[in-house]
Specification:
Blueprint (H helix, E strand, L loop, with lengths): L1 H9 L5 H12 L13 H9 L8 E7 L5 E6 L5 E7 L46 E4 L3 E3 L14 E4 L2 H15 L8 E5 L9 H15 L6 E5 L3 H8 L6 E5 L5 H7 L8 H10 L8 E7 L7 H10 L5 E7 L13 H13 L3 E4 L26
Parallel strand pairs: 4-7, 7-8, 8-9, 9-10, 10-11, 11-12
Antiparallel strand pairs: 1-2, 2-3, 3-4, 5-6
Helix pairs in contact: 1-2, 2-5, 4-5, 6-8, 9-10
Bound molecules: S-adenosyl-L-homocysteine (SAH).
Amino acid sequence: MQELTSLALESGQPAYRGQQLFDAIYRQRIERLDQISTLPLEYRTRLAEEGWRVSLPGLAGKFVSSDGTVRYLVKLVDGETVETVWMPEGDGGERGDGSEAGDEIEAGESQEHVVEGFRPAGRGQAPSPRLHRATICVSSQVGCAVNCKFCFTALLGVKRNLDAGEIVGQIVAVLRDQGVNPPSQRVNIVFMGMGEPFLNYDNFMKSVRLLVEGVGIPESRMTVSTAGIVPRIYDFGREAVRPKLAISLNGSNDTLRGDVMPLNRKWNLAELMKAAREFPLRTREKMTFEYVLIEGVTDAPENARELVELVRGMRVRINLIALNPGTELPYRTPAEERVRAFREILVASGILAFVRRPRGRDIFAACGQLKRTVEIASVSP
Ligand code: SAH
């Protein structure tokens, strides 16, 4: 917004042209400069002559899962592609922390349960006739540098960071394709696609501000997940406007976590948990930890007990993710029984724990499966 205002001022235009540009790009989602009818023709032409372009990333592929999840292959201006996932339905129970909607099997949180379509009056905008609980999972980098042993994106390595416009662009393009319009229709954003958002911190934070101010999605409906870039966790805690935080734990002791996440050798569990414990949570906010259950590696009852000790006394929720498998990986998915037993140990210790329902495994859209798969039947966008 500030940048657009400066752009307008530099060309001798009134400051409000910045706002007009902003609204045209982010609210009305106009795709071409010459179509922004709120601007004088002369100014539109001049911007075009100066080389300015308004562009939305193209949807180069669209894969629809039997569970309704849609995986988009999004093409950027330089021809690189990233993936963005649309998860249409929520978890069947809004629990007041929006961005978690759409992902988990509800368990043990009944006092926060709000009946569908019935929301306390007098707060915020009126609910739309059809209550949307869709979640968009967005990428922050082309590939990823973190190299977690169980994640497919790691196989790609990292090519480059996305800029803020490319992060927001994925969301705007998907909203358009789905015909959903915030803020009147609700949508949750999770920064959990390809890449490590905290290794592209400034662009990620800028995209958050654009989404809040431009697209009309409040930060309370956003969650960012980090593999554990400790210095950025401290920075993030100091942000005035920020999404909720989730940390990928995935191992209950340093040896185990170091094996599956080599990053643990740089920032070990003691450092990570210190940052997590010092993180300034807001009222009613909880720290989320993700924990991927890998058969015979991270899923032992002993691991669950270690996890209980790690988070003792913290206001947390733990999202358990049974490994989404793939032929390139040497790991297997634990049996359902094993997953249930692991969760039971956490719950018995008074910890809020959920098993994240796999979404779109059949189209390679589930957690950790984003690696730009194009070899399956595509439905044209
Ligand atoms: N880089 C960030 C954002 C990605 S979030 C992060 O690591 O947090 C993706 C989530 O999926 C992470 O919690 C990650 O641990 C998990 N994940 C990765 N590969 C997976 C797989 N094969 N099966 C299940 N979950 C996986």
